[in-house]
Amino acid sequence: MYPVPLTTNAKGKSIADSKNKNQWVTQIIEITSPSVTVTGLKANTGYQFQVRAVNESGKSDWSAISTVAAAKTTSAIATAEAPDLKKAKFAKPKAVPDTTTADSATITWATVANATSYVLTYTIPSGVKGVPGTTITKVLTGEELANATNDKVTYKIEGLKSSTTYKVSIFAQNASGTTTKTVSVKVKTLKIAAPTKLASSKTVKPTVSTINLTWQPPKKGFGVDGVNGYIVEVWAPPASKGVEPELVQVVWVDKDTTSLEIKDLEKKTKYTVRLTYTTGSGLDGLVLDRGIESAVANKVITTAK
């Protein structure tokens, strides 16, 4: 192959000027498929190609010459993809039903022609006035784009703070570069809601050693991905003034449970029951994370005389 500078004909089209020839460059490529991508070419330059096959028996004749014009810019994505990206439309969070939680948000945007990957950026607020947040950059390729279609890309952002607004920006990429233009969308994570209606059972009254609890999850769901149960803590009142309350029982129940009997209690005692979520299985979830411990329901229940 050799480069041929482009000229322009009367109709404004680029054509090859075959009078100005450079030396042929021979490149041996070990492939068996009938196509190959040639890199390292100069922008705004015409190239002519010939191909022949080679094996242990020898070489074939050269093919007919084919002329190809390289693009007028070495960053094709900057010209070809930026307009497509500019037209891309994000679906609002409510357009992706039941996907935004207290620590995650799912967004979708229009597929960009020729893009092989996407760069997603957003900032996690520091929570301290005057202190900048942490900017997160994710490059989405391979498995992360496994669910992409010809029309749209959908991606779930995890590890977010609850009740926080994020501005998410998307850039498109390919081997030629990254788009300078972007589209952005704001998403707000949910507030972690506490269980509701925690109370002593209306049908099973407290005895001298037992209390029966009932509760309901929030109407809008748990709000946190991975929640699979509740932690129930039972606290006895301080033995004397100035002494801390005593944790006497800790029980784990699965997320579908909405009632529980607490046994082996002291008679005529005011117990404080604390109910919250857990992402762990069993009492391994006692050490809570991601702000779930703020979603607590409390109830004081007295055992019988």
Q: Can you offer a commentary on this structure?
A:
The strands form six sheets. Strands 8, 9, 11, 12 and 13 form a five-stranded antiparallel beta sheet that branches. The chain has helices at 76-80, 82-87; strands spanning 2-8, 14-16, 45-49, 54-55, 58-59, 66-69, 104-110, 117-124, 134-140, 152-158, 165-174, 177-178, 183-188, 196-200, 211-216, 229-236, 246-254, 259-262, 270-278, 297-302. It is built from two helices and 20 strands. Helices cover 4% and strands 38% of the residues. A hairpin with a 5-residue loop joins strand 1 (2-8) and strand 2 (14-16). The protein is mainly beta. It has two domains: 80-188, Immunoglobulins (Immunoglobulin-like), CATH 2.60.40; 196-302, Sandwich (Immunoglobulin-like).
Primary descriptors:
five-stranded antiparallel sheet, 2 helices, Immunoglobulin-like, single chain, 305 residues, 2 domains
Total strands: 20
* Fold-level CATH name of the largest domain: Immunoglobulin-like
The first-level CATH class of the largest domain is given as Mainly Beta
Find the CATH superfamily of the largest domain. Immunoglobulins
Number of domains: 2
Shape: elongated
> Topology as H/E string?
EEEEEEHHEEEEEEEEEEEEEE
Q: In angstroms, what separates the terminal alpha carbons?
A: 99 Å
Total of helices: 2
Query: Rg, please?
Result: 33 Å
Strand content: 35-45%
Task: Find the structural class using helix and strand composition.
Answer: mainly beta
Average pLDDT: 75
Uncertain regions spanning at least 5 consecutive residues? 1-20, 73-83, 91-95, 287-291
- Just name the CATH architecture of the largest domain: Sandwich
- Main sheet attributes: strand count, strand direction, barrel closure: 5 strands, antiparallel
Determine the fraction of residues in helical runs and give it as a percent range: under 10%
